[in-house]
Amino acid sequence: MRRLTQILVLTILWSGGLSLGARAEDEAVVSDPAPSAEVARAQFTLAVVEREPAEAIQQLSNDHRQIYFWTELRNLAGTQVLHRWEWNGQVLAEVPFEVAGPRWRVFSSKQLETNWLGEWTVSVVTNTGEVLAQESFSYTAAEPAPPAAPAPAASPGARSERPEAGSATGP
Question: Over 90: is that where the pLDDT of 147 sits?
Fold first, then answer.
């Protein structure tokens, strides 16, 4: 009888351990979260070259009239996002994009008026209204150009080898 009890206990422990292992594996499969949707990179730039931003801009003077907002989106395939352009808190444009892959790079641009000085913000917004990212830049008045340097004065007694236009040359 004692031998039968030992066999029974071992059988229960062995089968219980096996089912616990199976449950742990099942839970691991179920608990693996899907990759989260994100904006991997976002920045203002003056140019986009081969689908990449040329340089990062945080401040821009109004002698420039166009700026781009570039974003790299991750895990948003099959959704729509938009760039919402705001100037001093007022929405001036919304540019929608259809995201067609797991890594998607998009950009929009804005033609700026020279008097639209102040804070500009672009938000990356999902079709459900969730703001995924937000960046800002400052649009400022250009520094006045320095006055042109005066032409060098001719030295006393210097003579031009070429006759000036409209002047007569004599013998």
Answer: no
Q: 70-100 burial string, b = 16+ CB within 10 Å, else e?
A: bbbbbbbeebebbbbbbbeeeeeeebebebe
Confidence of residue 155 (pLDDT cuts 50, 70, 90): low
Amino acid identity for residue 30 in this structure: V
In this structure, what token pair is assigned to residue 137? 């830049």
List the one residue out of 39, 52, 53, 47 whose CA is nearest residue 134. 39
For the segment 11-34, the average pLDDT, to the nearest whole number, is 46
Q: How far is CA 147 from its chain centroid?
A: 38
Check the CA dihedral 53-56-58-64 and report its sign. negative
The rounded distance, in Å, linking the Cα atoms of 85 and 74 is 21
On whether the pTM is more than 0.85, the answer is: no
Domains located in the chain, CATH noted: 39-140 (2.60.40.1930)
Q: What is the DSSP letter of 160?
A: -
pLDDT tier at 30, thresholds 50, 70, 90: low
What average pLDDT score do residues 109-124 get?
97
d(CA 34, CA 44): 30
Residues in the chain: 171
